[in-house]
């Protein structure tokens, strides 16, 4: 079983719509959680950290469910520029040892 | 954005060559990382340096040799690579704040081994 699992997509989303997707992780000792976005042939960029109480940053909302071991990302009012691959990232050890998911591709269409 | 820079951006090398990748972070962070990203695969952590000391070596073959002379610079020395080592090599840095490890990535070096 993969340590961090994501639906690869693609999620095809009309501009202005809402899209949400999850990520599951296998290690219950995981401590920190993040969403990164990666554009084609570019480096991953930190989108947001995910806190236990859930958090929101503009049109983006992240939730953490420790009992079921998943995190989610919701994007409201999707923009064309939101088209990217969204990487779920989990830290379950010391020294910043991050485990990356393979990513969920989102394609926002006009 | 120039928080983390990497050179070269592209590299083509033969299997008998020796080359080095360079990473520099301008964020005042105390930890640096090397990752490998192959096509259609998740990022794989290769090495972690915290306060210039290697604290993680993720079963990486010895043909990859990291060096961290100070907290701002990180190198990856390459020798006798194999074609399957062709990938995007990403450097990242973070500031260890008691367990939160938000990492910031450089643009990567796209390596092709012929």
Describe the structure.
The complex is a heterodimer of chains A (110) and B (114). By secondary structure, chain A is mostly beta strands. In chain A, 0% of the residues lie in helices and 55% in strands. Chain A has strands at 4-6, 11-14, 19-25, 32-38, 44-50, 55-57, 60-65, 70-75, 84-91, 98-100, 104-109. In chain A, strands 2, 4, 5, 9, 10 and 11 form a 6-stranded mixed sheet that branches. Chain B is mainly β and 114 residues long. In chain B, the strands form 2 sheets. In chain B, strands 2, 4, 5, 6, 9, 10 and 11 form a 7-stranded mixed sheet that branches. A 4-stranded antiparallel sheet of chain B has the order 1-3-8-7, with no helix packed on it. Chain B starts with a strand and ends with a strand. The model of chain B has no long low-confidence stretch (mean pLDDT 90).
**In what range is the share of β-strand residues of chain B?**
over 45%
**Straight-line N-to-C gap of chain B:** 31 Å
Shape of chain B: globular
The tally of strands of chain B reads 11
The biggest beta sheet of chain A, please?
Answer: 6 strands, mixed
Main features:
heterodimer; A: 110 residues; mainly beta; globular; B: 114 residues; seven-stranded mixed sheet; 56% strand
Topology:
The complex is a heterodimer of chains A (110) and B (114).
Chain A: E1 4-6, E2 11-14, E3 19-25, E4 32-38, E5 44-50, E6 55-57, E7 60-65, E8 70-75, E9 84-91, E10 98-100, E11 104-109
Parallel strand pairs in A: 2-11
Antiparallel strand pairs in A: 1-3, 3-8, 4-5, 4-9, 6-7, 7-8, 9-10, 9-11
Chain B: E1 4-7, E2 10-13, E3 18-25, E4 31-37, E5 44-50, E6 53-57, E7 64-70, E8 73-79, E9 87-94, E10 104-105, E11 109-113
């Amino acid at each position: 079983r993969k340590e961090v699992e994501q639906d690869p997509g693609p999620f095809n989303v009309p501009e202005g719509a809402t899209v949400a997707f999850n990520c599951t992780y296998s290690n219950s000792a995981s401590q920190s959680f993040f969403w990164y976005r990666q554009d084609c042939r570019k480096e991953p960029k930190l989108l947001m950290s995910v806190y236990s109480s859930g958090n929101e940053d503009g049109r983006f909302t992240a939730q953490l469910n420790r009992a079921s071991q998943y995190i989610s990302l919701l994007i409201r009012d999707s923009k064309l520029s939101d088209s990217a691959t969204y990487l779920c990232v989990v830290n379950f050890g010391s020294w910043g040892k991050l485990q990356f998911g393979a990513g969920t591709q989102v394609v926002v269409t006009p | 954005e120039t928080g983390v820079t990497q050179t070269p951006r592209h590299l083509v090398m033969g299997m008998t060559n020796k080359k080095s990748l360079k990473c520099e972070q301008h964020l005042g962070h105390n930890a640096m990382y090397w990752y490998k990203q192959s096509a259609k695969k998740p990022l794989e952590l290769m090495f972690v340096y915290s306060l210039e000391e290697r604290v993680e070596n993720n079963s990486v073959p010895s043909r990859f040799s990291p060096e961290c002379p100070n907290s701002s610079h990180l190198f990856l020395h390459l020798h006798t690579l194999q074609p399957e080592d062709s990938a995007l090599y990403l450097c990242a840095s973070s500031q260890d704040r008691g367990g939160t490890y938000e990492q910031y990535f450089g643009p990567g070096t796209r390596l092709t081994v012929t």
